[in-house]
Specification:
The protein is of the alpha+beta class. The protein is 44% helix and 22% strand. The protein has twelve helices and 13 strands. The protein has two domains: 49 residues; 247 residues, 2-Layer Sandwich (Thymidylate Synthase, Chain A), CATH 3.30.572.10. The radius of gyration is 22 Å and the shape is globular.
Length: 306
């Protein structure tokens, strides 16, 4: 089940009438501001609280059980609340902040074929290996960074290298409920000046009720062509860390300050959103073993062609 939350809840909820909403807001205002306020002060405070309630209308909030469902729901919400924003690439985008919760990130089906934008079907597996195993770290001098390089071999200006993920594992083993188990990617002495700084900013971990939860914070996230692969690979990292600390995998939280689709992709985006709304897009969902079988068959065909 997917939950969509927006500021329209206060006036559209089937459970709260408009009069009740007003009374609820006034009571909330009194509680937050002061029971003894004069009328004009109360009205002013009521206005402030009402303004705060309006903020979520600009934010995507999605909560879903599985990964493909969450990604699809986030795209629908982006189409509804996104604003047209110019970018530094001389192109418009539709854009909104996003908060996406995947309650059971490893419940199948985990694969969304439409979300694999990597040049090949196997590209999703290669991307996971890039994040967790660092198979492209040899290209850092050319491309500027990889997530594995920043997370596993974070290099300070003095040359010191820190394996942040190993530090996270050690901290969680010592104190599973710590609030200090996080890893960052940003290097201000470098990234403030580069044309393509990391989109991933930090990852936060904690064990709750025997399950490792993970919060990922992105400064920028291409909702259509990158978000699904990001979330898939990051949940694989979550599973990796969970295995090292002896925990099960808990929920996954994905936060993007800029969750966007570029103008050149709007036609594809709008078409896909309609497929999601109709339910047709679910034909692209696959269980992991089905996806791996597809990759294997394709590789066999390609090897025979050679």
């Amino acid at each position: 089940m997917v939950q969509f939350v927006s500021s329209r809840y206060a006036r559209e909820s089937n459970h709260v009438t408009s009069d009740t909403s007003i009374n609820l807001t006034i009571n909330l205002t009194k509680g937050l501001c002061n029971q003894d306020l004069e009328l004009y002060s109360l009205i002013a405070c009521y206005y402030i609280i009402g303004t705060i309630w309006m903020v979520p209308s600009l934010v995507i909030y999605v909560r879903a059980r599985i990964l493909p469902e969450a990604w699809e729901a986030s795209l629908v919400k982006l189409s509804e609340v996104g604003k047209v924003v110019y970018t530094e690439y001389n192109e418009k985008s539709i854009d909104a902040p996003a908060v996406i919760v995947v309650e059971e990130p490893f419940t199948e089906p985990r694969i969304h074929l439409k979300g694999i934008v990597a040049g090949s079907l196997k590209g999703l597996l290669d991307y996971v290996d890039e994040v967790i195993k660092g198979i492209h770290d040899n290209l850092v001098d050319k491309v500027g960074y990889t997530y594995h390089e920043r997370l596993f071999t974070y290099r300070l200006p003095n040359g010191e290298v820190i394996n942040q993920i190993q530090k996270v594992i050690e901290k969680l083993r010592k104190t599973s409920y710590t609030r200090r188990a996080q890893a960052i990617t940003w290097q201000p002495w470098k990234d403030l000046e580069t044309e393509h700084p990391p989109c991933l900013q930090r990852i936060w971990f904690r064990v709750i009720d025997g399950k490792l939860v993970m919060h990922v914070h992105m400064r920028s996230n291409d909702a259509l062509k990158a978000a699904y692969m990001n979330m898939y690979a990051f949940t694989e990292l979550q599973k990796y860390v969970a295995s090292k600390v002896g925990a099960e995998v808990g929920y996954y939280l994905h936060i993007a300050d800029s969750y966007h689709v570029y103008e050149k992709d709007w036609k594809w985006f709008n078409s896909f959103v309609e497929q999601i709304k109709s339910g047709y897009s679910r034909n692209r969902w696959r269980k992991t073993h089905e996806y791996l079988e597809m990759v294997s068959k394709l590789e066999n065909i390609e090897s025979k062609a050679l």
